[in-house]
Design goal:
The protein is built from 12 helices and no strands. With about 300 residues, it is an all-alpha fold. The chain has one domain. About 25% of the residues are buried.
């Protein structure tokens, strides 16, 4: 599903390019002052080793990229684009850019409020890994939170017990993330406006479906492994040549494409979970309380 929705993934990738452009925008003044507005006019190719290797000295002189403001804008942009991603996961038919952004604008407020409500659930989801870590530490077993920094840097931090604790942490994160995706699907599918109720309904539905939670965890672990594998290949590329730098840029974009493709696939997984639970019966999907209609009164006997 995620890789077939290449247009949706392309929109997410363009949003990431926008954030990257905002990050490097503060550097442009220093770049233009050092190289001029037209490097080709002075006999230098636009992408050449002299220009690329001169970036380090520009960073030392204070011409650094901006990070905080673009990352905050990225959070807002991701919340805005969530409505369009949910629309593509739930609705059929062809991709239409106008309809995509229309659903983004229609659901952006509710998606933002849903995210804030589920932020309250995140500490609760972290309680279980913390309690497991306390019990394991009391028994003298290693956990992710008690491994020394030297072991992370020079040793082997993962043992059987630390991997077990890692699994508990990953499942807790997956529970929160799947609840967020399910809540977004409920906002679109049932046009829910009470985001607080949608958040609690999503959490209850995920808790009632442990098999789906496990499959979602495996999906997230697979996505993370593929991204790390591509990132490892990107880090192993040698430096100093323009062609290799361009190849590294392409590999980095492949890693982003994989991440966004699995993001779309995770939303589709949540949509399928909601549809399957709704088809199983009203008792499976918690619904908002509705007023009880009075029972019909039989007419008096003649």
């Amino acid at each position: 599903m995620g890789f077939r929705e290449w247009k949706t993934v392309g929109v997410l990738l363009c949003a990431n390019w926008l954030i990257a452009a905002l990050m490097i925008f503060p550097m442009l003044r220093g770049v233009f002052s050092a190289w001029g507005h037209a490097p080709r006019a002075v006999g230098k190719p636009l992408v050449s080793p002299p220009l690329l290797l001169h970036l380090g000295s520009l960073l030392e002189t204070g011409n650094r990229p901006s990070a905080l403001a673009p990352l905050l804008f990225l959070l807002v942009l991701q919340t805005f684009l969530a409505g369009g991603v949910v629309w593509r996961a739930c609705a059929g038919g062809s991709f239409r850019l106008g309809a995509f952004f229309g659903q983004c604008g229609r659901l952006v407020g509710r998606c933002a409020r849903l995210y804030l409500w589920l932020l309250l659930v995140l500490p609760v989801a972290a309680v279980v890994p913390a309690l497991v870590a306390l019990v394991m530490h009391a028994l003298g077993l290693p956990t992710l939170f008690t491994i020394p920094g030297e072991t992370w840097a020079f040793g082997s931090p993962f043992s059987v017990w630390s991997l077990l604790h890692l699994g508990v942490v990953v499942i807790a994160i997956a529970l929160w993330r799947l609840s967020l995706d399910v809540g977004r699907v409920l906002l679109f599918r049932e046009d829910v406006r009470a985001t607080r109720r949608a958040a609690w309904r999503a959490v209850r539905l995920v808790i009632r479906e442990p098999r789906a939670l496990l499959l979602y965890t495996v999906l997230g672990a697979l996505a993370t492994a593929l991204v790390l594998l591509v990132a490892r290949g990107r880090a192993s590329l040698p430096e100093g040549k323009v062609r290799l730098a361009l190849l590294a840029l392409v590999v980095a974009q492949v890693a982003l494409w994989i991440r966004f493709a699995f993001q779309v696939a995770g939303t589709r997984f949540a949509a399928a979970l909601v549809e399957r639970a709704a088809a199983a019966g009203p008792g499976v999907v918690p619904t908002e309380s509705s007023p009880v209609e009075p029972a019909p009164v039989a007419p008096p006997a003649a």
